[in-house]
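A further point concerns the way the authors explain their paired sequence and structure data. Each protein is reduced to its one-letter sequence and a matching series of backbone shape codes. An entry of this sort, consisting of the sequence and the corresponding backbone structure tokens, reads as follows:
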Amino acid sequence: MLLELCQGGELFSRLLAENILDEGSCAFDAGNMLLGLQALHNHSAVYRDRKPENILITTSGHTKLADLGFAKKIDGKTFTRCGTPEYVSPETLSHKGHGLATDLWSLGVFVYECLQGTTTFAAKNYRSTYKKIMSYKVHERIRWFSDVSDEAANLIGQLLKPKAKNRPPIEQLKAHPWFATRIDWAGLQAREVEPPFVPHVQDSTDPSLVEPQPEGEGSVIPEEALRGRVGVVQGYLLISLD
């Protein structure tokens, strides 16, 4: 799968630098992600690995889903337990099958993380994280570390419904007050909405904001050799057509 060089790097790096995002910035990124999920779901494909490391910032500041290694075309449900522990849904852990709504759960974790600086079910190890997720099925209590608007708290609560069937469909989510007051969906789809963050790069071949690939897992292309070459950065195939 070929993707243009997203010179802003991973959204994860931005979160590390800023800790939390304001609600306008978060809504912009979450809105882009919701459109990406809608495109996948319209083709009966579930994504299953939403996390800031898999969200890339383009040169213009828009965000894109990347790394579809866990994506799968399904007919109703699938049963493989996969994904990053802090973002997996209760139904994924239950081994009773999960469907497209598992992506909405991880979107809720993502929005929470952007606004709180930590994931909803963060723990010292993945087993403790799984226990927190399954415990949430019983009490449905979300711990808040900093203030958020009532609309944001409501949206997160809707996305983190323990039962998949109770999570709102994407069109209903797009009409939610938190999105409706912040997002022009047609403009966002057309990339006509001005991004809240635009990466500062020197030119069209500047990879300085792209996290270097660990040795042995791909090669980073030297800037002077990037033009007209192909290589791998963070597991993604990159090519410059200049």
Q: What stands out?
A: The first helix runs from residue 11 to 18. Residues 203-242 form one domain.
